[in-house]
Write a structure and sequence with these properties.
The complex is a heterodimer.
Chain A: E1 18-19, H1 23-54, H2 58-86, E2 88-91, E3 95-100, E4 105-111, E5 115-121, H3 124-128, E6 131-138, E7 141-149, H4 150-171
Antiparallel strand pairs in A: 1-2, 2-3, 3-4, 5-6, 6-7
Helix pairs in contact in A: 1-2
Chain B: H1 14-37, H2 43-70, E1 71-75, E2 79-85, E3 89-95, E4 99-106, H3 108-113, E5 115-122, E6 133-138, H4 139-154, H5 160-165, H6 174-183, H7 187-205, H8 209-222, H9 224-234, E7 238-242, E8 245-250, E9 255-261, E10 265-272, H10 274-278, E11 281-288, E12 298-304, H11 305-315, E13 325-327, H12 333-363, H13 368-399, E14 401-405, E15 408-413, E16 418-424, E17 430-435, H14 437-441, E18 444-453, E19 456-461, E20 465-466, H15 467-483
Antiparallel strand pairs in B: 1-2, 2-3, 4-5, 4-9, 5-6, 7-8, 8-9, 10-11, 10-16, 11-12, 13-14, 14-15, 15-16, 17-18, 18-19, 18-20
Helix pairs in contact in B: 1-2, 6-9, 7-8, 12-13
Classes of the chains: A alpha+beta, B alpha+beta.
Chain lengths: ~170, ~500
């Protein structure tokens, strides 16, 4: 395993970031399977009816459809592994940082001072695996901490809330 | 009449007419269409169609009256209390300290009845499309109230009569506003307009009535609404600053007066659409939160760059920064061009598929002009658009700049159009550094910052620069919060 992702006894990487639990991959795979089934239906329909719809260009359309289908299917299959490998988050009294991405890697920083609202959200697939998302709202939009274990999500949300409340109290 | 610390007040009755006009005009239009279409039908059928409309109009009038009767406004020492008691009782308390602006609107109905509508906006991204509260009063009452509130919110020290005599920082003629409306728009819109205009002239020359109508329709849909809106909105333009309050006044039929404190400015933007750049002109705008339908405040319409800079110095010297900036590094060129090629791919594929699919049908058409037009269109989609994108990439490489110094940082973006946007670190809500696989190979990323804006919130992205340099935006934002250089009280 890459040393960047090796965790110590407290579950943190060398640079202080926390990783997701492996169960997040299962949740992502189920979600991706649903997308794949819909995509497959569209792909089969294109293969069956392209002659009638596109006439002379049906050969080219089929070729493009196969290429697009392979790329998306590969993304849906490999995506969860890469997402899990790269997803890291860090939180202290001043800020929340998230590093994530499959193709595009993003480093997001949300100062605690800018947070307006914290919400815990659990979709049906996440509920199956005991996972939840923490949605952080600032005046400049929304940032999500995804696929956390429910108790971790609740504690993260509670800690974020405490920080915001403390900051507001200090201002009074 | 004392309004602050006075008794609860209602909207001026003319506000009901404004509300009803927006409903009755479309309904009357519908009724007119119905009567015209069924002119030959039996009287009974006509009457049966008119009944529901009449009932709808009566109901609307009654509800509008009830809303007017049951909505009161009480101006206390520290807050405005809006009481709505229709079906459910709703009380809204708006602290004066939360108000970011009290704007003025005078439409045709206001002018007829000698009234003014005040729009109360709070400093929130939720309050962008609609004001938190609106109140219509007799003109003199509204002016007195606004003045008193402005004194409380913005600490204004001069009276409205004196304010009206303050000289405008920028002298703008209505002819300049017409030019601003036409070429102050993004180049894409202007080009679509000019292209449609040329094509309509060509169609007339070739006696092709159908194409002429289509191109005229394109002009009407794509360019005219924005152009007309700009002319109506910004005619009789005036801008001035009193203390820390900037006021923009304009309007042809409807008069607008937007005031905001300079501390509420989230970013300053200098826009230079391609044609304007060729003429050495630019536009100065500010992102200010909580203006409801006031739109993005225009600090200086299309003017020579020197005039825009002078306006900036006179109006908002605290937002003029001498930043050390540098252009997009050479390493960013390949990732930029690859992105443009990826964006071009769908256009090329579409053009190829469409040509293969419809070649025989196109060739089989009788009109040579139509055949030429279709092939020209396919060539435009498959060749010209990708070419435009590639040239955009080359220009963007030369244009994009990033710089940071002291309290602010700047992103210069765009290819054909150029946008220079200055941000205060203290106004950054979140910052994100992002890189794709090709960008990572070359060690470059983009930085996206989100800020509050006149339209809620917006995200602005930089060009491609060294990831370490872009990370400094979020690091500096955090450093200012931690070492106390950021003081929230400065922006209340």
């Amino acid at each position: 395993m890459n040393s960047d992702f090796r965790v110590d006894e407290s579950g943190r990487t060398a640079d202080g970031y926390l990783r997701l639990q492996p169960s997040c991959k299962k949740s992502m795979y189920i979600g991706n399977c649903v997308i794949l089934v819909i995509l497959l239906a569209v792909f089969v329909a294109v293969m069956l009816y392209s002659d009638k719809i596109f006439g002379d260009a049906s050969g080219m359309v089929r070729m493009i459809s196969v290429a697009v289908f392979i790329i998306i299917a590969a993304y849906l299959l490999i995506g969860p592994i890469v997402f899990y490998k790269r997803y890291r988050y860090k939180m202290d009294d001043d800020k929340l940082e998230i590093r994530r991405g499959i193709v595009f890697i993003t480093h997001t920083l949300v100062p605690m001072e800018r947070i307006h609202q914290v919400q815990v959200s659990r979709g049906p697939i996440n509920r199956m695996f005991g996972l939840a998302d923490v949605i952080v709202t600032t005046a400049g939009g929304v940032t999500a901490l995804e696929y956390l274990e429910t108790d971790v999500a609740e504690s993260v949300a509670s800690r974020l809330n405490d920080c915001v409340v403390k900051m507001l109290k200090d201002r009074e | 009449m004392k309004l602050i610390d006075g008794a609860p007040i209602r909207n001026h009755p003319s506000s009901m007419i404004s509300t009803l006009a927006s409903f009755i005009i479309p309904v009357a239009f519908m009724a007119f269409i119905m009567v015209t279409n069924y002119r030959d039908a039996m009287d009974r059928e006509l009457i049966s169609a008119v009944y529901p409309i009449a009932v709808l109009i009566v109901l609307t009038v009654l509800i509008t009256f009830r809303i007017w009767q049951k909505t009161t406004y009480t101006f206390g020492t520290n807050e405005l209390v809006v009481n709505r008691d229709l079906v459910m009782k709703r009380v809204t308390n708006i602290q004066y300290s939360r108000l970011s602006s009290v704007n003025v609107q005078r439409g045709i109905i206001n002018k007829l009845f000698g009234t003014t509508t005040l729009l109360f906006n709070v400093n929130s991204s939720v309050n962008t499309a609609r004001a938190e509260a609106t109140l219509t009063l007799k003109e003199e009452e509204a002016d007195a109230l606004r003045e008193e509130l402005s004194r409380l919110i913005f600490k204004k020290e001069i009276a409205l009569e004196q304010e009206l005599e303050v000289e405008s920082v920028v002298k703008v003629s209505n002819a300049e506003i017409v030019l601003h409306g036409l070429i102050g728009q993004p180049t894409v819109s202007t080009l679509v307009g000019i292209g449609s205009l040329l094509f309509s002239i060509l169609s007339l020359f070739l006696n092709n009535g159908g194409s002429f109508i289509v191109s005229v329709m394109m002009i009407v849909v794509s360019v005219l609404p924005q152009w007309i809106r700009n002319i109506f909105r910004y005619s009789n333009y005036r801008i001035y600053r009193v203390g820390d309050t900037v006021t923009v006044q304009s309007g042809l039929l409807r008069n607008y007066r937007i005031s905001f404190n300079v501390s509420k400015i989230n970013s300053i933007r200098i826009r230079e659409p391609a044609i304007a750049r060729l003429m050495g002109k630019s536009i100065l705008e500010a992102e200010v939160v909580g203006l409801s339908d006031g739109g993005i405040p225009l600090l200086c319409p299309l003017k020579k760059k020197d005039a825009v800079y002078k306006a900036m110095m006179a109006l908002i010297p605290e937002h003029v920064f001498d930043l050390e900036s540098y252009g997009q590094p050479r390493e960013a060129f390949i990732p930029t061009m690859v992105t443009k090629l990826i964006y071009s791919l769908p256009f090329i594929l579409f053009s190829m598929i469409a040509t293969t699919m419809w070649y025989n049908q196109i060739i089989g058409l009788k009109e040579q002009t139509v055949i030429a037009f279709i092939f020209a269109l396919l060539a435009f989609v498959g060749v010209i658009i990708p070419l435009i994108l590639v040239v955009h990439g080359i220009l963007a490489q030369r244009q994009r700049t990033f710089g940071m110094h002291g309290d602010a940082f700047v992103f210069v973006t765009g290819g054909y159009d150029k946008v220079t946007e200055y941000f205060l670190y203290d106004k950054v809500q979140t910052a994100e550094v992002r890189s794709g696989p090709i960008q990572r190979r070359f060690g470059v990323s983009t930085c996206t910052v989100s800020i509050l804006s006149s339209t809620g919130f917006k995200k602005v992205s930089s060009g491609l620069f060294s990831s370490d340099d872009l990370e400094k935006v979020s690091q500096e934002t955090m450093a200012r919060i931690l070492d106390g250089r950021y003081d929230y009280r400065r922006y209340l």
